[in-house]
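Worked example 4.2. Below are the chains of a multi-component assembly; read each line carefully before continuing.
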Amino acid sequence: MSLLVVGSVAFDAIETPFGKADRILGGAATYFSVAASYFTHVSLVGIVGEDFTEKDAAVFKGRRIDTTGLERAPGKTFFWAGRYSENMNERTTLATELNVFAEFKPLLPEPYRKSEYIFLANIDPTLQRSVLHQVTRRPKVVALDTMNYWIERTPEELRETLRHTHILMINDAETRQLSNEHNLLRAARHIFKLGPKVLVIKRGEYGAMMVHSRHAFTVPAFPLEQVHDPTGAGDSFAGGFMGYLASAGRVNEAELRRAMVYGSVMGSYTVEKFGLDRLRSLKRSEIHQRARHFSKLTQFTL
Amino acid sequence: MSLLVVGSVAFDAIETPFGKADRILGGAATYFSVAASYFTHVSLVGIVGEDFTEKDAAVFKGRRIDTTGLERAPGKTFFWAGRYSENMNERTTLATELNVFAEFKPLLPEPYRKSEYIFLANIDPTLQRSVLHQVTRRPKVVALDTMNYWIERTPEELRETLRHTHILMINDAETRQLSNEHNLLRAARHIFKLGPKVLVIKRGEYGAMMVHSRHAFTVPAFPLEQVHDPTGAGDSFAGGFMGYLASAGRVNEAELRRAMVYGSVMGSYTVEKFGLDRLRSLKRSEIHQRARHFSKLTQFTL
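Applying the procedure described above to all two chains together yields the following structure tokens:
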């Protein structure tokens, strides 16, 4: 099934206790696409500047990623710099240079307009909605990520976009902020009134929780002895989740649970090395192996 | 199988966003005993003062709890007062009056000395060790809880006691403090060198994780719409865990996992009401029902 992602492609400068990178490829749509491409064909919509070279684009090559929708504009590519604390629990943004991303107006190439699975990565909710207006067929699944900035600054626009969203995929702080409710089950109930039928809460080192109607499902983070760089973990999770779901072609309880597991698998691999280093070099056998490890980590009989 | 617990019996004053109690029965050994008694026979060792009435003792009556080892001493019972923050994430201790607990010297009645399952609740590690010296038969399982106070103040005594401990059951902050290691897998490896073969890490609203040799197992906290009072959750977890394990009579991977689930079941019930109100009124059918809910919450097929 066709999976469309719209979001940022960026250069990141990252500092963690394990090392430093001055300028490596990143961005939500990048992590998402690479993760999802292990499961299905991905159509990418984003924008890069003149500093984005063939070498940078190589990450998409040889994968099931269509980059027809990756616009090249005069100027520089979106740049983000951040530093993680000793325990990786906190990160400080040192620089955000929107560059060409400031003028980003997502435009879907004709073949993308029939996409059945759509992931709207964290961008202006008005732009997210403009993507949905370009789709000519009712999509099976629209999933959306957002952040505190949009929750605070453009609450009305976000609400309007949420009305057209099936799956909201945010972290616990965002869940609490959006619903003004600390308890996650009550927060979920509030969010269901805004449109989404499924809430996927990303909880970092504690894993992820999915809530829909009256059911909840949790998956832990994979215990790793070393996390080198948490950047992109959430977007890799989203890529694994949506990639798996699109490949399954059905949306039911069992498939959503598997999507949660494959999302967690992809997130757990991403943090093992810097940037996309681990994610881009994965073998399919490693993905299945870790999914089985998630089984061992969580399964019991009564 | 016989299960021995040594720890505090106390009166608590508790303030949470859901209410206030000036003086209700509490203490680690109390929560532990009541939780464990749903699974097996419990032998309790603790100390109370003259203010501990028949009405207070009623919580132990009609259950499989032997209180021969509950000493009555001149003076007042241990008293603790605490207040939880709006989100229940933090608690402030307002008062700690040791009273008779300051002179507590655990003495095991003769029939207790053959206990095969032993839980040493959070008390002075020297006293914890004195309990083990009184046991005449090599116990099957010695589990231990401790806290920052002992980790900081009596590290050598704690180390000596840990040498005789099979299962260490502490929270994540204590795990990190004891091992001087933030990563929980590496922390576990450090702790295994001190004696314990199994580490059970209690993570509050995020559930619990068990690590032993090269395996890990996680169980989430049960998602509840309202948590009224977190007091005693960890001790109820320990009671469910050890009670189940003693009732199973075997210690293997499958039983340890079930113990994690039943521990989580008991902890999740405790927080639903103030103090022991919910825990003491449970039906066995409710315990099994929630264990099945834990299955639904975590299980998936690949």
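Take a moment to check your reading of the output against the notes. The mean pLDDT of chain A is 96. The longest helix of chain A spans residues 253-270.
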